[in-house]
Amino acid sequence: MRSSDSLPPRDLPRQFASRAELEATLRQLFPQAPGGLSPIPGGRRAAEAALAAIDPAAYGRSRNHLDGAVTRLSPHIRHGVLSLVEVREAVFAWLARSGQPPVAAQKLINELGWRDYWQRLWRQLGDGIWRDQEPLKTGHPPERYAAALPDDLLEARTGLACMDGFANELIHTGWLHNHARMWLAAYVVHWRLIQWQAGARWFLQHLIDGDPASNNLSWQWVASSFSSKPYMFNRANLERFSSGRYCSACAAATDGTCPFEASYEQLQADLFPGASSC
Amino acid sequence: MLKPVLWIHGEALGPANPALVAHPGAPALFVFDRELIETQRLSLKRLGFLYECLLELPVTLRHGDVVEELLSFARRHGADGVVTSAAVDPRFGLLREQIAAQLPLQVLEPEPFVALPEPLDLRRFSRYWRRAEPVLWGRGSAAAPPAPARRWDR
């Protein structure tokens, strides 16, 4: 690290011998910030490498799978290291280069559209993104939901291998696959009956692509305050899109206590017994 | 504005930042917003990611009160104003107002992902996408067939 006495007063250092030295400096600068660095590096070089590696066709086919060809561009887009325009042009250039039909890139362009949509909504709603956009469709009154996350979730010791795995990944890497975000959010809101805002704050604390608009409005989509019905999943869905990696090592999956082991109809009845429209 | 300083914020940490494009070589500042970091209890992962992005930009780094640090930086450089890029986070709007009360402030807009006439119906993504998708593909090499819009497929 460059000696601080060679810098103008209050300027922060810009030269580090290693990532470990950067981390040590940041711990001194921000002693209240929990954890360490993400294994995912920031910066234009990393962003350009991620952009050069995109495969829009494979993305379209496999993006819902935890092992799918997701782009991992979100942290770079969120902080403007890559602009949406640059990514859009890279996708069109990929189409021209690959000779694939436009439909091959349609899913990826659609997801870029979601990013643009959330930002436009944020401009319109401002801090209103923290409030329910519509009444919940779960049949539960708002006061039924707890205001804070429980310790077992924050400490990744719920006893459910999937949810503990997602919480650990969130806390230690700062990135989660979109499907894992959905499952974890649905578990928090519908199985644990916790206000979506508590989960949204938790995600924003850790996600290196943490964007209040995308994050909060997606939590509201799960909760059903920005959608026509609550999002839920069952074990079969999670097991399929995670290749069974969690269930195979989970006691709850074999001892009959997995809370996700049910049909959608059964879960609907159990989780939302008072919902009139479901 | 003859001698501005640039205010770089966390929504535009790349070379497409219109303030950096319009004023190459001008003194630029990023401030780690102490109040925001503390109230949101941001993790070191998030701060480290930002820091690594900033190390690849020609920008001075500080930690503290954003307005105070920016005005002090402008004084150090004898600046006659501040140039920045548009931001969506309403917090930046409040900070901009405080800065503009002290120094001339210019806000530059980045190129939009898709240019659409306002007002736009944003009640559901599908309504936005019906307008945006044809415009986007109209500027590509060929038109794509419309697809059903659904967030987070089950």
What does this structure look like?
- The complex is a heterodimer of chains A (278) and B (154).
- Chain A contains 14 helices and no strands.
- Chain A has two domains: 44-126, Serine Threonine Protein Phosphatase 5, Tetratricopeptide repeat; 142-271, DNA Cyclobutane Dipyrimidine Photolyase, subunit A, domain 3, CATH 1.10.579.
- Helices cover 50% and strands 0% of the residues of chain A.
- By secondary structure, chain B is of the alpha/beta class.
- Chain B folds into two domains: 4-108, Rossmann fold (3-Layer(aba) Sandwich), CATH 3.40.50.620; 113-154, no CATH class.
- Chain B is 38% helix and 16% strand.
- Chain B has six helices and five strands; from the N terminus they run E-H-E-H-H-E-H-E-H-E-H.
- Chain B has a five-stranded parallel β-sheet.
- Chain B starts with a strand and ends in a 16-residue tail after the last helix.
- The model of chain B is unreliable at 148-154 (pLDDT under 50).
- At the A-B interface, helix 1, helix 2, helix 5, helix 6 and helix 9 of A face helix 3, strand 3, helix 4 and helix 6 of B.
Q: Write the CATH fold name of the largest domain in chain B.
A: Rossmann fold
Helix content of chain A: 40-55%
CA-based gyration radius of chain B: 19 Å
Secondary structure: helix percent of chain B: 25-40%
Which strands sit side by side, in order, in the main sheet of chain B?
3-2-1-4-5
CATH topology of the largest domain in chain A: DNA Cyclobutane Dipyrimidine Photolyase, subunit A, domain 3
**Biggest β-sheet of chain B: count, sense, barrel?**
5 strands, parallel
**Which class of secondary structure composition applies to the elements of chain B?**
alpha/beta
For the record, the count of structural domains of chain B works out to 2
Shape of chain B: globular
Distance between the termini of chain A: 59 Å
CATH class of the largest domain in chain B: Alpha Beta
CATH homology superfamily of the largest domain in chain B: HUPs
The mean pLDDT of chain B is 92
Low-confidence sequence ranges of chain A: none
Give the quaternary arrangement of the chains: heterodimer
Tally the beta strands of chain A.
0
